[in-house]
Each structure stands twice: as C-alpha cells, then as structure tokens.
Amino acid sequence: MMDKADAAQMMEDMQKRFPGLTPEVAAQTFLCESLRACRSVMDLARLPIDPSVINQLRDRGLLDQEEWQRLMLMLDPASVSPTIDGSGE
C-alpha cells in the first residue's frame, strides 16, 4: 500500500499534469476504465457498482450511450430490453 505522503505527492503531480483533476474525478475515471475492461457479469461483480452508479457515470459524460448499454445488458438486462406488450409485439 502507498503511504499518505506518497499518495499526496502522486495527486499533486497528477493535478499539475491535469488541472482541475480531483480525487473524485480520478476515481470515476479509473472506475470507467475498469468497467470498459469487464466482459462478463462476474467481472462486474468485482467492482463497487450498481445500476445507479452506471447511470451517474453516463449522466456525467464519463460513459457514452453504447458503453452504458453494454454494461447495463450485463448488469440489469430488463432496464435496456424493449418492452413486449400482451400481444407479443
């Protein structure tokens, strides 16, 4: 594990390279990249996410619609599947 001094130095270096970077944005960006690597629901189960987190990342522009849909199909297929009415259409 990284000690606090090293973590603070790393964050300071990152903020110099990427002005406006906050720990929250850095964590969200890291989470998005981790989500992009997921290929199954078992991969998703290893991350601290639920559909509301995926929605927040999309709403903040960190996930595009296509990536959001791919993830939601694994996590909660009913949320993105078309609804079929009683007539079967």
**Helical fraction:** 55-70%
Largest sheet: none
Rounded average pLDDT: 86
Number of helices: 5
What is the strand content?
under 5%
Stretches with pLDDT under 50, minimum 5 residues: none
End-to-end separation in angstroms reads 55 Å
Order of helices and strands: HHHHH
| Gross morphology | elongated
Q: What is the radius of gyration?
A: 17 Å
What class, by secondary structure content? Answer: mainly alpha
Number of DSSP strand runs? 0
Task: Compose a concise summary of this entry.
The protein has 89 residues and is mostly helical. 61% of the residues lie in helices and 0% in strands.
Describe this structure in words.
Helix content is 61%, strand content 0%. The protein is built from five helices and no strands. The protein has a domain at 37-77. The protein has helices at 4-17, 23-37, 41-45, 51-59, 65-75. It is an all-alpha fold.
Sum up the structure in keywords.
mainly alpha, single chain, 89 residues
Secondary structure elements and pairings:
Elements: H1 4-17, H2 23-37, H3 41-45, H4 51-59, H5 65-75
